[in-house]
Every structure is written in structure tokens, then in C-alpha cells.
Automatic annotation (TrEMBL):
It is found in: Membrane. GO terms for cellular component: membrane. Keywords: Membrane, Transmembrane, Transmembrane helix. The chain crosses the membrane at residues 20-38, 45-69. This is Bladder cancer-associated protein. It comes from the Eukaryota. Acts as a tumor suppressor; induces growth arrest at G(1)/S checkpoint and apoptosis via RB1-dependent and p53/TP53- and NF-kappa-B-independent mechanisms. Modulates expression of genes involved in the regulation of proliferation, cell cycle and apoptosis. Its main location: membrane. The gene is BC10. The keyword Transmembrane applies. It comes from Oncorhynchus mykiss (Rainbow trout).
Length: 87
């Protein structure tokens, strides 16, 4: 279970508010996970626990899934503010 300390914090990294950065964030997270799985080769139990947690977060649409954006979830009101998002 030592390898879970490197995998679980990945689920806590927030998705950016700006929709233009979602693709870059998804690619970074995907490449990080792929490189981690190839380099460290976590045990089967750790990999299954992480994949189950990732599946539950993405399936429930809590808003922190980096694989895709849930269509039912709305952006915070501050995401539409031009002074925050930028010009």
C-alpha cells in the first residue's frame, strides 16, 4: 500500500476554472499517471483501489474528474467573470 501515497494526491488536484485549460490539464494528468504506472509499477491492489476511486469520482460528477467535464454540472459564477478568467 506504499504506492497509494503517490496516487491518491492526484485525485485532489483541482480542475482549472478556465475551460480552455481543461484539455491541457487532462493531458498532463494522463501522462503523469501513465508514466507513474510504467516507472513505479504499483501493486495490483493499489492500482485497483486508485482506479475504483477515479471511477467513482468521475461517475458521480463531483466536478474533480480530469478525464472529462460532466454536462450536468455547472461552472461557478466566478468562472464567467472576465476579470478572473482574463481577457
Amino acid at each position: 500500500m506504499y504506492c497509494l501515497q503517490w496516487l491518491l494526491p492526484v485525485l485532489l488536484i483541482p480542475k482549472p476554472l478556465n475551460p480552455a485549460l481543461w484539455f491541457n490539464h487532462s493531458m498532463f494528468m494522463g501522462f503523469y499517471l501513465l508514466s507513474f504506472l510504467l516507472e513505479r509499477k504499483p501493486c495490483t491492489i493499489c492500482a485497483l483501489v486508485f482506479l475504483a476511486a477515479l471511477f467513482l469520482i468521475c461517475y458521480s460528477c463531483w466536478g474533480n474528474c480530469f478525464l472529462y467535464h460532466c454536462h450536468d454540472s455547472t461552472l461557478p459564477n466566478s468562472a464567467h467573470d472576465p476579470s478572473i478568467v482574463g481577457n
